[in-house]
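Quick entry between incubations.
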Amino acid sequence: GQNIDQPTEMTATEGAIVQINCTYQTSGFNGLFWYQQHAGEAPTFLSYNVLDGLEEKGRFSSFLSRSKGYSYLLLKELQMKDSASYLCAFMDSNYQLIWGAGTKLIIKP
Amino acid sequence: TAGITQAPTSQILAAGRSMTLRCTQDMRHNAMYWYRQDLGLGLRLIHYSNTAGTTGKGEVPDGYSVSRANTDDFPLTLASAVPSQTSVYFCASSLGGTSGSDEQFFGPGTRLTVL
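Done. Structure below.
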């Protein structure tokens, strides 16, 4: 079967660093996506990993380990506007996205 | 460029009534998708279309139907709404094909309440 799991909620302080983990199980894998979703808005693309390792994009970085079925999203120099839900999704063998329930990130001053 | 639009923004619907949620994209994307998003659950795929003229069933297709008469439009119809269809509905589009890095672009969503 297929499944994907990420924490429901995390809290961090403005200016700090936070790591949001995502674990998945699937027999077919074509990459791992992270999306950001502010309350009441649509998800927007953050990153895509298909090979093992770290992809850095400004304050955001995403890591993938295919052998462990594990990814994380690292957010540095947190700003209040980073308060949002972060959605992890993997692309299965049929090129369909399987989504986690999302991690709500609360940033405190 | 508008990207991807949805209508209506929100709707309250009596159980048993039918309704069509509209979705239009101007990016000439081949693939389009309908998801529902419920609290505590991930986005769940209802139906998808890999190209104009074709459609497929996702994870939760029962009670919904779609059509893809052209590239731009992908309407979702609820034939006889039930309260369990209360949700936020997102339409998305992507270039499609078998590229793993096929980023999906989302519309603003339709908030539907079935009473």
